[in-house]
Amino acid sequence: MVDDTELLRGAGLRVTAPRLAALRAIETHPHTTADDLVTALAAELPTTSHQAVYGVLAALTGAGLVRRIEPAGSPARYERRTGDNHHHIVCTMCGAIGDVDCAVGHAPCLTPSETHGFAVTTAEVTYWGICAQCAAAEQSGVETDAVAANRPEPS
Questions:
Q1: Any idea what the CATH number is for the domain that residue 41 is in?
Q2: Whether 23 and 59 share a structural domain
Q3: What pTM did the predictor assign?
Q4: What digits encode the pLDDT tens for the residues 39-82?
Q5: Residue 110, CA distances (Å) to 17, 57, 85, 113, 120 in order
């Protein structure tokens, strides 16, 4: 298994403390947002700014070490699972995200009936539903912290 230092070097990137910390944090917390990453890095690298984190994410995404996903109604999220063409399932109540492997075929596992001249390189599907935790909370009439945090503010 290649360590993160070698991954960065292999991608032609300089090895820096913020890049290494970001890779570790995204590995530990897949589908993290930039803001969550700033918080995660604060304990290890307290002087790392929001701008620095966005720069790190841009470099890691550009090098193919991190994948950026953008579920509708959600800020961009980042994951390290880049070597395949998997999809995502999103809870409509709390925003939790899970990975869903392609059920049919090889990447891209969706083949359009018409490409309109495009060379298809990836396909993405987002499934929407209610996660088990939210479904249980809804049945019991108890609101979870994640649901409360994702409820829109009154206008």
A1: 1.10.10.10
A2: yes
A3: 0.80
A4: 999 989 999 999 999 999 999 999 999 999 999 888 999 999 98
A5: 38, 28, 10, 10, 10
